[in-house]
C-alpha cells in the first residue's frame, strides 16, 4: 500500500548496522512466552518481519515505538550506549576472568548491565538481578567480616582468661562466636560504600558497557552514575547465582568484589 | 574440682537442686530466679578451651557428689570483686542460662540439637536496649540473621516466581520475614517478654527496654538516610533494605539507648537466633529450619497485586512480547437492566483468552479481566527449580538447572 511505504522507509533508516537477513516467514523467537500464544502471528504489513528475528537486547519492541518523536530532545549532549557484543564480552572477561563471557547466556549478559532508565525499560532491566545480588553480597560481606578477629577484642589477663567488666561478668566464650564483635553495621557500610563499589565497577570497565540514560550526559556524577554502576555490579552477581548457582556466585563475590576491597580468603 | 557433664535429659534441671554454694539467707526462697554471683562458679563457667567434641559441652557446675567442695585448690584467675546483686546487672549472667528451664524448654520446642549452647540462646533474647555491651546482646547476631533470612527468601521468590514485579517482591519479603511476621513467629514460639530488663529476670524471657504506650517512636527508628525527594524503586533496591523501605533500617547497636516497641525486639530475637544457628550448627540446618518455620507459612501472592490501569499495562505487555493487541469481549451477562447486573468479560489476544473477569459494570469486568491476565503473566511458576543456595558445598553439579531470568515488569 502506498501510504505505508514512507513509514516503512522511516523505520528502516533507524535500523542499526547489525541486521540479520530477512526471512520469508516471520517467526517469533522470544526468550519467554513462546508457548503462550496458540495463534500464528499476524502477517499484516505493519509488523516488521525482520524485527521479529532480532534478540530482545538489540532492539526496542517494534510495536512500542512511535513512528516519529513528538517530545523535544533533551538538553545537553547525546549519551551513547554500547551496542557492541565484543566490548561487553571484554568487560565480563575483565571482571570474571577468562571464560567470564561464557558464564551467562547472551540475553542475561545484556540484561545484567541494563539499567531501568535505558530505553524506558522496554528492553528489560536489572532490578530483580540486582535485588538478589545485593542479598548475596551482603551475606558474603557479613561472613567475611566474621572470619577476621575484631580490632578490639575482649581484654584478657595474663592467663588468657577474659577480664570481667564493670559488672563482674565475662561473656560466654565459644569458638563459633569468636569474631562476632567485628560484625557491625558500620563495618558493613564502610565495606559496601557506594563510592568504593562504583570505583571497583569502573576498574572492571562496567561504566563503558552499562546501558542507562543519564539526566545530563555531561554530568554523569550528578546523574547518579555511582548508583547505576553499583546496580550493575549487584546484577551481575545475581545473574550468576540464577544461572550458575550459589557456589559460583559466592566465589565470584569473594574473589572479584570483596578481595579487591581488602579481604583475603584462603583457598580451600 | 571435678567437672560435671550436663546430661541430655532436661529433667535434671527441673528438679529442685541445692548446689553447694555459700548460701545467702534471702536467696533460699528465690533459688531459681536469682543467680548468686559466686566467683568460683564464674571461674568454672569461663572456658577458653576450644570445644573438641560437638556432642558435649562441659560446663563446670557445682557437683553435689563431689568430694572436695570447699577445698578447691585452684584459686580464681580473676581478682575477687565486690559481689554485685543481680538487679544491678543489665542482663542475666551467662551462667544463669544453664539453669533456666525456659531456655531449655525453648531449645527443645524448636527441636534444636543439644550442642546448641543455652548461653547463646540466652544472648539472642537480649536486645541492645536492655544491655548496651555488644558482647552480651544480640546486635551482631541479628545482622547475620537478617542477611540469611533475606537471602533465602529472595532466592525462593525469584526462582519460583521469576516474573514477579519488584513491588510485589518487596511485599512478599515483608510478609515472610518482615518485622510483623517475625514478631508473630516469636509469639508462636512462646517467647514472652520481661516487664523490665535486668540481671534478675529469667534468661528465657525477651529483654528490651519497653516503649511506653503513648510516647512517640524514637528518632533512631525513623528516617535514617538523607532525604531524597524521589525515592524510586531501583534506589530502594540498592540503598535501603529488602522490604523496599524508604529509609535504611537502624543499626541494631544504635538502639542501645532508646526504648523500642516489642515488635522490634522480637524481630531482633528471631534474626539473632537464625544467625546463632548458622554459626553453631551450620547452614544446612538453617536452611531446613527456614523451610520448616518460614516457607511453611501460606502466602497468597495474588492478593499482593494492586493495579492502577491494568488495561494499559496489558496492552503494553502484549506490544512488548509481540502478541496481538488485547481485545475485550463480552462472554456472558445477566441482569443488565436490573439493580445487580453481572457481566463476564474476557480479554483476548487473537484467539487466545488471556484473562477473564466478572463485574457489576462492563468497565469493571473489563478491568478485572485485564488484571487477571496480568496476574497470569506475573505469577508464572516453573514446575521444578533448583535454588542457588542448594549448590553451596554441593559436589554434584549435574543437579543444577539454570533458572529462568525474566526481563522485568512492563513499564508504562
TrEMBL record, chain A:
GO terms for cellular component: mitochondrial large ribosomal subunit. One of its GO terms (biological process) is RNA processing. Transmembrane segments: none annotated. It comes from the Eukaryota. SUPFAM superfamilies: RNase III domain-like. GO terms for molecular function: ribonuclease III activity; structural constituent of ribosome. It holds the Pfam family Ribonucleas_3_3. Residues 106-260 form the RNase III domain. InterPro entries: Ribosomal_mL57 (IPR040030), RNase_III_dom (IPR000999), RNase_III_sf (IPR036389). PANTHER family: 54S RIBOSOMAL PROTEIN L15, MITOCHONDRIAL, LARGE RIBOSOMAL SUBUNIT PROTEIN ML57. This is RNase III domain-containing protein.
TrEMBL record, chain B:
InterPro entries: dsRBD_dom, Ribosomal_mL44_DSRM_fung, Ribosomal_mL44_DSRM_metazoa, RNase_III_dom, RNase_III_sf. Residues 309-379 form the DRBM domain. The keyword Ribonucleoprotein applies. One of its GO terms (biological process) is RNA processing. The keyword Ribosomal protein applies. It is found in: Mitochondrion. Residues 57-78 are annotated as: Disordered. Residues 103-191 form the RNase III domain. Keywords: Mitochondrion, Ribonucleoprotein, Ribosomal protein, RNA-binding. GO terms for cellular component: mitochondrion. GO terms for molecular function: double-stranded RNA binding; ribonuclease III activity; structural constituent of ribosome. It holds the Pfam family DSRM_MRPL44. Belongs to the ribonuclease III family. Mitochondrion-specific ribosomal protein mL44 subfamily. This is Large ribosomal subunit protein mL44. It comes from Lentithecium fluviatile CBS 122367.
